[in-house]
Amino acid sequence: MSEGWLALIQQALSLLFSLDPDVWSIVSVSFSVSLAALAITLIPSMILGFVLAFARFPGRWFATNLVQTTQSIPTVVIGLLVYLMLTRMGPLGDLKWLFTQKGMILGQMMICAPVLIAMSQAAFTSVDKRAWETSRTLGASWLRSVWLVCRELKVPLLMAIVAAFSRILTEVGCSMMVGGNIAGVTRNIPTAIALETSKGDFAQAIALGLVLLILALVLNFTLGTLRGRAEPRSL
Amino acid sequence: MLKLKSILSLAIVASALTLTSAQAEEIIKLATTTSTENSGLLKHLLPKFEQESGYKVQVIATGTGKALKLARQGDVDVVMTHAPAAEAKFVNEGYGMMPRGIMENDFVILGPKNDPAKIRSSKTAEEAFAKIADSGVGFVSRGDNSGTNMKELIIWKGAKVEPTFNGYRAVGQGMGKTLLMANELQAYTLSDRGTFVAYKAKLDLAVDYDGGKTLANPYQIMLINPEKYPDLNHKGAKALSDWLIGNEAQGMINSYTVQGEQLFKATYSE
To answer: Coil, helix or strand for A219?
Structure first.
């Protein structure tokens, strides 16, 4: 290495703390796209998870396994599917969403929905059924009872949200394919890191990596605290 | 369980074997640009060299900027790029040695087939660029410090246009991907002719402007200074450089065609 490690880290930190406009535009693209995708998918996915956990209907077993399977599809494959849908020749070509943030949001929705559904289903399955039945027999409305169960499950549901969010915030395959890494428009943290590394400019890549790292730490520690409060630690 | 173990141990043995056999023949690491790789020229030339010399060439294809950086850091044995200004700097600063121009192709300005910015009548590449900026049709830039990207920025400078206008998109991708994006967006872009011909069948784009001195694109191969990095494969690097300027390789470069078009012109002269 011709550049010392320390010099690189120093450059990276100065980029972050001098609020370098390029770096922060990249960070804001990442967050606005991923938060939008999460916000749109959150409620429908939770409802589906709830239905899969509590309802009994033919094909439930199949649906559950399907969701489990889609969780493990590589993001590049989802990227490819969305790309083919949005390309000029594709069925949704008229939308002109390819290489726009809308397209990226669509791709990320498809990535985070299975995670949300599967994890919320697992959470709802684990809850004591009696809580639900009691509140129903006491005459609480259906919605109120759902709310009650959700409050009971605060921690596992939050874990589902954090897991889904971190998956879409850090995935590179789908964002690169569908977004196209356009500077200032669809360039997010992972695609920028990939680009800077391929150019051999490591300072910005490290700065962006640090943002992800700090975020992961904050999220995990928050979860840890929540979990610690929810279940008394056994000695 | 036992089965899994035996499969694993087999895999380990197999990988160990391939490692040792790879070390048995000497490796040359060549850093070069995506254009030589995407166009298929290297696949056409290198097997012949490997067969004659016994060396094995490992190609690392990136943009010119990164290729020169790899060479600067001593991560590769030899480098072949196409950005005269950056190459001169690389040699003058004592990292590169014995630069040899081995071939050239040219850049073309691609755009929608109906040429909405009317650049076909332009006198120079700069004029064509200025028209694109004024038209609002859109321009897709590699934006990755590659030789093509450097050339594009030089043309913007010559045209006295800041490449920040509405519709200018820097995408930070290789040439092939950039062409596909320009095609999807039906925008203009600057490409080397080689990659364009290789992708032609997939594209709904046409050469809207070409020719002239500005768009010439010469390739050089350079050795790396042994005083800086004594432990690289300098012998192999020299052998590859010598072979590429020989009659046989120069003839092979001229005879390489894709879809009936010659992509590169051999240019080495003593």
So the answer is: helix
**Residue B107: what are its φ and ψ, rounded to 5°?**
-90, 150
Q: Which candidate, B75, B196, B208, B206, places its Cα nearest to that of B132?
A: B208
Q: Which residue has the tokens 């690097």?
A: B237
Are A181 and B185 an interchain contact pair (Cβ–Cβ within 8 Å)? no
Whether pLDDT at A160 is above 80: yes
B206: helix, strand or coil: strand
Does B172 sit within 8 Å of A99, measured CB to CB? no
What 3-state class would DSSP assign to B188?
Answer: strand
Say whether A99 and B72 touch across the interface (CB within 8 A): no
B173 touches chain A (CB under 8 A): yes
Phi, psi of B187 (to 5 degrees): -120, 170
Question: What residues does A127 pair with on adjacent strands?
Answer: none
- Across the interface, of B66, B70, B171, the residue whose CB is closest to A181 is B171
Yes or no: say if B110 and B189 are a contact pair by the CB < 8 Å rule: yes
Selected residues 113-172 of chain A with any CB under 8 Å from a CB in chain B: none
What pLDDT does A221 receive? 87
Nearest-5° angle of CA A188, CA B151, CA A175?
Answer: 15
Contact B144 A98 (CB under 8 A): no
Distance CA B190, CA B215 (A): 10
- The per-residue pLDDT for range A8-35, each reduced to its tens digit, is 889 899 988 888 888 989 999 999 999 9
Mean pLDDT of chain A, nearest integer: 89
Identify which of B65, B171, B181 has the shortest CB distance to residue A200: B65
CATH class of domain segment(s) A21-229: mainly alpha
Rounded to whole angstroms, how far apart are CA atoms B180 and B186?
10
Residue A96 burial (CB < 10 Å; 0-12/13-18/19+)? middle
A71 SS3 class: helix
- Mean pLDDT in order along chain B per 10 residues (270 residues): 58 51 70 86 95 93 89 93 94 96 95 96 96 95 92 96 94 92 96 89 94 91 95 95 96 91 87
Transcribe A2-59 into DSSP letters: -S-HHHHHHHHHHHHHTT-HHHHHHHHHHHHHHHHHHHHHHHHHHHHHHHHHH---TT
Q: CA-to-CA distance for A67 and A69, rounded, in angstroms? A: 5
